[in-house]
Every structure is written in C-alpha cells, then in structure tokens.
C-alpha cells in the first residue's frame, strides 16, 4: 500500500498543499457518506490511538474518540493531570514512549512547539487538536461545510469578524489563502494578525488566486462576503482579558445588522464553537452581571437563524478528523493528489 499522507503528522495547514488539503476535505465528505450509509470503514483496525488533552474540549475530544472507534481502533484519553508530560517527563521522552505503544497521537494544548516535538520524537503520526497558534482539524471540517453549501471553494469570500490573532483566525487566514478562498480578517488594529502570518497568507494567495485583506472597517470588510465567521473573543488561557476584549470587539459582534451589511442573501454564518450567544453559561452570566451584555461574539438571533451552520461544522469535525487519521495512519492507496 502507498499513500502520500502515510506516516505524516498534521500539525499546521501550511505543511500541506492545496491539492492535499482538498483531498482531505473530499475524503471527509466520502467518509461522511459511508457513515450515513452504515458502510464499514475500519481503516485503522486493531490500532491504538492516544488522545492528549492539556486544554478542555467537547467537539475535538468527542470527534477523535468516535472517529477512532469508527475506524476500528482503540482510543485512550490522557488528560492534563493523567500523565507526566512536561512536569516529570520531557515532551521528547513522552513522545518516544507513546510512539512505542500507540499508532497515532492527538495533542491539544497551548504550545505549537510541544506538538512539533511530539511529532519529531514519536515516530507515528501526531495530530494537532488545537494550539495557541493553529487549529488545523477545524479547518478541514469548516471547508467541508463551506463546500457542502456552495459546491466549490475557490473564489468564495470569508469575512472573519472578531479576535484577529487567535488560532482560528490564523488557521482561516492561511487555509483560505492556500485553497484560493478570499479571506478578510475584520478586527480592531490592536488585534491585527501577526505580520508573519499575513505574509504567509499573501504568498499562498499569490499562488492560488485568493486575496488576503486585514481591515478594522466592518462595513467594508463584510460587503459581499459568502461566509461570516466568528470565534470567542477570549480564547482558552486568556480569561483575564474579558473586560478589555469586550470593549475592543463589541463593534465587531455578529448581529443581524452585520449580516445585512454583507448585502448577500446567500450568506452563511459559521462559528467553531463553543459560543457566547446567550447567558446560559457561567461566563455568559458573569458578562451579563459585570458588563451588562447578554451576548458576545454573536447574537442569539443570528445563532438561531437560517444563516447558521455551526452545528454542521461541529458534526463535520468527526468526518474531517476521521479523514486525517485514516489518510496518515492507515494503509490506504493514495498514490498522488
Ligand atoms: N471547536 C472546537 O475545537 O471545540 P472544542 O473546544 O469543544 O473541542
Ligand atoms: N479560539 C478558541 C477556539 C476554541 C475551539 C480557543 O482557543 O479557545
């Protein structure tokens, strides 16, 4: 068997070509159809998969667990307090040990260098389940969702409104540019993405025919957009910054008025989740009590509207993660893309 993906880690989108990312999106679509038709797809039969989570998760953990099981493998959850990683044992040594026992390793945590070191030492595929820098498995699910809605990717326009320098913004910027999708990061100047990431995006966009635009002007940024995307204003680990972020980002809240400013009746709304669209969470209640706001990055009206695709995205995490795992850790015949 031969696969151009076999044995590779999935650490950041920039490590993959446009054709390779497109292949994973299409393979995820195929696996979604197989699951819907109850067709077996046990490409990892008999294997063992380690799931390392230093940060909390609902979708990523659930998707990796179910994907592993659907692929015929065994998932082993290793939470932040369960193993010695980084406290009593180096990342390198942990990677070497886990690589002797497991056939693939998922890692979620703060540091991109940890997931990179794991990949260098483990000798088996390592998958990035989110770091402060990138959220690449989210991207395969998101672009699958966009493709399901529009039938194609290249030439579409995404306007991301919110924290312009978090993992999801970084990943959307670079992945869009690789795939020939126009990406606009609509955010205050104080939250503009890192110059290196913008430069990377421009390089890819020059090759793919996409465009990269960073703006603090909402009306200009969302005009004509096919997709309005947002994420939490305060990412995991940044909770001390709630007050500052609310002040900075309230003008960028995705509400009905912002949706109408796209002047595109076919526009869809996307969010990687979890979302603060009401006060049904402890953070939501605290924000209401302290700052007098009932909704943060997206209003409840938009969240529950006909534009909303966030739960399709959430389901597609399963199919996307399955595609990434099967392609890299399975014995599939994928000679070229
Ligand atoms: N979107 C996402 O990664 O969700 P979780 O944090 O719940 O895994
Ligand atoms: N930017 C968010 C994404 C959560 C899926 C965070 O890092 O908390």
Automatic annotation (TrEMBL):
<keyword id="KW-0963">Cytoplasm</keyword>
<feature type="binding site">
    <location>
        <position position="231"/>
    </location>
    <ligand>
        <name>L-ornithine</name>
    </ligand>
</feature>
<dbReference type="GO" id="GO:0005737">
    <property type="term" value="C:cytoplasm"/>
</dbReference>
<dbReference type="GO" id="GO:0019240">
    <property type="term" value="P:citrulline biosynthetic process"/>
</dbReference>
<feature type="binding site">
    <location>
        <begin position="272"/>
        <end position="273"/>
    </location>
    <ligand>
        <name>carbamoyl phosphate</name>
    </ligand>
</feature>
<dbReference type="Pfam" id="PF02729">
    <property type="entry name" value="OTCace_N"/>
</dbReference>
<dbReference type="Pfam" id="PF00185">
    <property type="entry name" value="OTCace"/>
</dbReference>
<feature type="domain" description="Aspartate/ornithine carbamoyltransferase carbamoyl-P binding">
    <location>
        <begin position="8"/>
        <end position="148"/>
    </location>
</feature>
<protein>
    <recommendedName>
        <fullName>Ornithine carbamoyltransferase</fullName>
        <ecNumber>2.1.3.3</ecNumber>
    </recommendedName>
</protein>
<feature type="binding site">
    <location>
        <position position="317"/>
    </location>
    <ligand>
        <name>carbamoyl phosphate</name>
    </ligand>
</feature>
<feature type="binding site">
    <location>
        <position position="84"/>
    </location>
    <ligand>
        <name>carbamoyl phosphate</name>
    </ligand>
</feature>
<keyword id="KW-0808">Transferase</keyword>
<feature type="binding site">
    <location>
        <begin position="235"/>
        <end position="236"/>
    </location>
    <ligand>
        <name>L-ornithine</name>
    </ligand>
</feature>
<dbReference type="InterPro" id="IPR006132">
    <property type="entry name" value="Asp/Orn_carbamoyltranf_P-bd"/>
</dbReference>
<dbReference type="InterPro" id="IPR002292">
    <property type="entry name" value="Orn/put_carbamltrans"/>
</dbReference>
<dbReference type="InterPro" id="IPR006130">
    <property type="entry name" value="Asp/Orn_carbamoylTrfase"/>
</dbReference>
<dbReference type="InterPro" id="IPR024904">
    <property type="entry name" value="OTCase_ArgI"/>
</dbReference>
<feature type="binding site">
    <location>
        <begin position="135"/>
        <end position="138"/>
    </location>
    <ligand>
        <name>carbamoyl phosphate</name>
    </ligand>
</feature>
<feature type="binding site">
    <location>
        <position position="167"/>
    </location>
    <ligand>
        <name>L-ornithine</name>
    </ligand>
</feature>
<comment type="similarity">
    <text>Belongs to the aspartate/ornithine carbamoyltransferase superfamily. OTCase family.</text>
</comment>
<feature type="binding site">
    <location>
        <position position="108"/>
    </location>
    <ligand>
        <name>carbamoyl phosphate</name>
    </ligand>
</feature>
<dbReference type="GO" id="GO:0016597">
    <property type="term" value="F:amino acid binding"/>
</dbReference>
<dbReference type="InterPro" id="IPR036901">
    <property type="entry name" value="Asp/Orn_carbamoylTrfase_sf"/>
</dbReference>
<dbReference type="GO" id="GO:0042450">
    <property type="term" value="P:L-arginine biosynthetic process via ornithine"/>
</dbReference>
<feature type="binding site">
    <location>
        <begin position="57"/>
        <end position="60"/>
    </location>
    <ligand>
        <name>carbamoyl phosphate</name>
    </ligand>
</feature>
<feature type="domain" description="Aspartate/ornithine carbamoyltransferase Asp/Orn-binding">
    <location>
        <begin position="155"/>
        <end position="327"/>
    </location>
</feature>
<dbReference type="InterPro" id="IPR006131">
    <property type="entry name" value="Asp_carbamoyltransf_Asp/Orn-bd"/>
</dbReference>
<dbReference type="GO" id="GO:0004585">
    <property type="term" value="F:ornithine carbamoyltransferase activity"/>
</dbReference>
């Amino acid at each position: 068997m031969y696969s151009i993906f076999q044995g590779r880690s999935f650490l950041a989108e920039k490590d993959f070509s446009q054709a390779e990312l497109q292949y994973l999106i299409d393979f995820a679509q195929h696996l979604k159809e197989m699951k819907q038709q109850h067709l077996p797809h046990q490409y990892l039969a008999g294997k063992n998969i380690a799931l390392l989570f230093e940060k909390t998760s609902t979708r990523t953990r659930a998707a990796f667990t179910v994907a592993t099981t659907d692929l015929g493998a065994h998932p082993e959850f290793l939470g932040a307090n369960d193993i010695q990683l980084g406290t009593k044992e180096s990342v390198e040594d942990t990677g070497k040990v886990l690589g002797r026992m497991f056939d693939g390793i998922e890692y979620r945590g703060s540091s991109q260098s940890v997931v990179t070191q794991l990949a260098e030492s483990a000798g088996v595929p390592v998958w990035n389940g989110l770091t402060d820098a990138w959220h690449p498995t989210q991207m395969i699910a998101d672009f699958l969702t966009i493709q399901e809605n529009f039938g194609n990717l290249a030439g579409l326009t995404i306007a991301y409104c919110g924290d312009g320098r978090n993992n999801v913004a970084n990943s959307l910027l670079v992945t869009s540019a690789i795939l020939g999708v126009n990406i606009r990061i609509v955010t205050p100047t104080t939250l503009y993405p890192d110059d290196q990431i913008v430069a990377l995006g421009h390089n890819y966009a020059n090759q793919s025919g996409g465009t990269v635009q960073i703006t603090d002007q909402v009306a200009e940024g969302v005009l004509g957009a096919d997709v309005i995307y947002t994420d939490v204003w305060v990412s995991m680990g940044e909770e001390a910054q709630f007050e500052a972020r609310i002040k900075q980002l309230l003008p960028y809240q995705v509400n009905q008025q912002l949706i109408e400013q796209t002047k595109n009746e076919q526009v869809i709304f996307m969010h990687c989740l979890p979302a603060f669209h009401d006060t049904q969470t402890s953070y939501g209640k605290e924000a209401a009590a302290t700052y007098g706001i009932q909704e943060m990055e997206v209003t409840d009206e938009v969240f529950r509207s006909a534009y909303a695709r966030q739960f399709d995205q959430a389901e597609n995490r399963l199919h996307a993660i399955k595609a990434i795992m099967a392609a890299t850790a399975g014995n599939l015949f994928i000679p070229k893309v």
